[in-house]
C-alpha cells in the first residue's frame, strides 16, 4: 500500500462560515487553495436532491445484495482518557490565508476533524472539489487572531479526532481523540487529554468500529442498566442517518471522513445508514491506494451508489448485542463493478 504524503496531510487549507451552522472548508490542490462548502446541516441542498432523484428510478434504487454479521462483543473497547503534558504531539494551529479563511496545521499524521465551538475544520490529502461543489461564502469575522483577547488567557474548549495515517491498514485503524483549550489570540489548540483506540474493520478498507461503556459501567451495578456506545468510522457519506439525537442528526460528522457514535441499551437497537458514491470511496481508499482511487473516481464508477446499514440488536436475555451489516446497491453493471472493487470477494455471490 502507498500512503499519502505526510506533508499533504498536514497542510490542507480550510475555512469557516460566519454563521454557526454551516461549515466551509478549504483544501489545497498543489499549492492553490480551493474553498469548498461543506454545509453539514443541509448537505448541499439542491445537489443532494439531484442525487436522490435518480434513486427513485427503478434502475437506480439500491437493493440488498449482501449481509455481513459481526461480533459486537469482540470489538475493541475504548480506553480511558489520559492527561497530557503541555508539550506533546497532537497540537494544531489555524493560520490565516486572507479572505479565503484558514489553513490547518497539526503536529502529527492525522486525517482529522477539528471542532472549535460550532465551527468545524478538516484536513485531507487532496482536494475534493467535485464532491463538495465549491461555493464561496464571506468570512465576516475570524474565529481567532489579534484583538480577540489576551494570549494564554482567553481560550475556548476544542476537540479534535481522527485516523492516524501511518498505522492505517485494511483491518485496523488507530483512532485518536483529543480535547484541550484553543487560544483565541494565537489560534493554537493544545491537547490536555487523549484517548487512543484500535478500531477493528467491519468491512476491510471501508468501515471500522469500536465500543465503549457510557452508563452502568462499574462492577456490581445491575447489568440491565448498562448503556454502551458503538462508534463507527467510515468514508465521507453523502447521507448519514442514525439512531442518535436530533442535534447529531442535523449536523452529522461527514467531513474528511464519517464518524458517528450510536448508543445502545439492553432490549434496544442501534443503527446507522451511510450512503457513498464511488467518488467518496475513491477519496477514502485512495489515501492509501492511489490506483484504486483512480479507478473509483473514473467515469464509470464515480457516480455509482453503495449503501451500508450497520445494525446492533441487544436482546434482553443476551449478554451482548449481535451485529449485522446490510449492503445495498442499484442493480446495474457499473454498480456491480463498484461492489466487486471495494468489497471482499467472499461476501458477494458469483
Q: Would you give an account of this structure?
A:
The protein is globular and about 65 Å long. Strands 1, 5, 6, 7, 8, 9, 10, 11, 12, 13, 14, 15, 17 and 18 form a 14-stranded antiparallel β-sheet that branches. The protein has a 5-stranded antiparallel β-sheet with strand order 4-21-20-19-16. Strands 2-3 form a two-stranded antiparallel sheet. With 350 residues, the chain is mainly beta. A hairpin with an 8-residue loop joins strand 20 and strand 21 (322-329). It has one domain (6-345). The longest helix is centred in the first third of the chain and has 10 residues, at 46-55. The protein contains 7 helices and 21 strands. It has helices at residues 6-10, 46-55, 129-132, 246-250, 278-286, 290-296, 333-342, and strands at 13-14, 24-29, 32-37, 63-70, 82-83, 92-96, 102-106, 110-116, 119-122, 155-164, 172-183, 188-189, 193-203, 207-215, 227-234, 239-242, 253-254, 258-265, 269-277, 305-313, 322-329. It is 14% helix and 39% strand.
Amino acid at each position: 500500500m502507498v500512503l499519502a504524503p505526510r506533508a499533504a496531510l498536514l497542510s490542507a487549507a480550510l475555512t469557516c462560515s460566519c454563521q454557526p451552522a454551516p461549515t466551509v472548508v478549504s483544501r489545497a490542490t498543489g499549492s492553490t487553495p480551493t474553498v469548498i462548502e461543506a454545509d453539514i446541516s443541509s448537505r448541499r441542498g439542491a445537489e443532494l436532491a439531484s442525487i436522490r432523484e435518480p434513486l427513485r428510478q427503478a434502475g437506480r434504487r439500491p437493493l440488498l445484495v449482501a449481509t455481513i454479521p459481526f461480533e459486537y462483543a469482540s470489538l475493541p473497547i475504548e480506553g480511558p482518557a489520559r492527561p497530557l503534558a503541555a508539550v506533546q504531539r497532537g497540537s494544531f494551529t489555524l493560520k490565516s490565508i486572507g479572505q479565503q479563511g484558514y489553513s490547518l496545521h497539526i503536529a502529527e499524521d492525522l486525517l482529522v476533524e477539528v471542532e472549535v465551538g460550532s465551527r468545524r475544520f478538516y484536513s485531507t490529502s487532496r482536494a475534493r472539489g467535485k464532491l463538495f461543489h465549491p461555493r464561496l461564502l464571506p468570512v465576516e469575522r475570524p474565529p481567532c487572531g489579534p484583538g480577540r483577547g489576551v494570549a494564554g488567557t482567553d481560550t475556548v474548549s476544542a476537540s479534535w479526532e481522527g485516523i492516524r495515517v501511518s498505522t492505517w491498514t485494511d483491518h485496523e485503524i488507530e483512532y485518536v481523540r483529543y480535547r484541550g483549550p484553543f487560544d483565541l489570540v494565537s489560534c493554537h489548540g493544545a491537547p490536555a487529554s487523549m484517548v487512543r483506540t484500535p478500531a477493528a474493520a467491519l468491512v476491510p478498507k471501508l468501515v471500522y468500529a469500536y465500543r465503549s461503556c457510557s452508563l452502568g459501567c462499574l462492577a456490581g451495578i445491575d447489568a440491565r442498566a448498562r448503556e454502551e456506545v458503538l462508534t463507527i468510522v467510515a468514508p465521507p457519506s453523502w447521507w448519514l442517518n442514525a439512531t442518535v439525537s436530533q442535534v447529531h442528526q442535523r449536523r452529522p460528522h461527514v467531513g474528511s471522513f464519517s464518524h458517528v457514535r450510536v448508543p445502545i441499551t439492553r432490549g434496544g437497537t442501534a443503527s446507522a445508514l451511510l450512503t457513498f458514491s464511488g467518488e467518496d470511496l475513491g477519496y477514502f481508499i485512495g489515501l492509501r491506494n492511489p490506483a484504486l482511487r483512480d479507478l473509483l473516481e473514473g467515469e464509470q464508477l464515480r457516480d455509482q451508489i453503495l449503501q451500508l446499514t450497520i445494525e446492533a440488536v441487544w436482546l434482553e436475555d443476551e449478554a451482548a448485542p449481535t451485529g449485522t451489516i446490510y449492503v445495498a446497491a442499484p442493480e446495474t453493471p457499473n454498480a456491480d463493478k463498484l461492489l466487486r472493487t471495494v468489497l471482499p470477494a467472499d461476501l458477494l455471490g458469483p
